[in-house]
Structures are given as C-alpha cells and as structure tokens.
Amino acid sequence: MADPMRIRAQAAGDKTTVRVLMSHEMETGQRKDSAGKAVPAWFIQEVTATHNGKPVLTAQWGPAVSKNPFLQFTIKGAKAGDKVAVNWVDNKGDKRTDEATVS
Predict the structure, then answer these.
(1) pTM for the whole structure
(2) Backbone angles phi, psi at 88, to 5 degrees
C-alpha cells in the first residue's frame, strides 16, 4: 500500500482551499530499466474528493501525470471542523483514501 497522502484544508471566508500531496511512482510505461526492458505503466487513474461524504471532485488521470502528484482545489461552504476525504485508484487496482479536517 502507498504512503499516506498529505492533505491540508484551510478555510478562508466561505471558501476552503484543499492541498493534497500524493505518494505514487507514476510510471508511464515508456521508460526502460537498466536491462533495456520497458518498465510497465503504473499510474493513478481516478481521483475523487468528498466534503462531509458529499462528492466535490472527480478526476480521470493518465500516465502523463508526474511522480508524487500535487493537487489543489477549492470548496465553497466548508467550515472549520468539516471533513475532507481524498481517494485514488491506480491502473493496478491499488487504492488509497485519506482524510483531513478543515482548519
């Protein structure tokens, strides 16, 4: 299983900025190892985010996204103490979900 995501959710007025740093190798499938064999593709395919259980973001990603991707988005109406959860699924079926509290 992948390392935990680093999630920060900070409220400012009626908007909350969510910043997420995901830990994932993100191989494109086009790179070769030292023996000259292609390294198999391994990348995050779908990212979802929820605010208190209600979906607020869905993204489809591909192999062009960099290693350890960073994602930032804004939510309207979130308040201090609310929960924001981020989930990803990669092309090998691995999954990760982490949660943060809005501050």
Answers:
(1) 0.88
(2) -135, 155
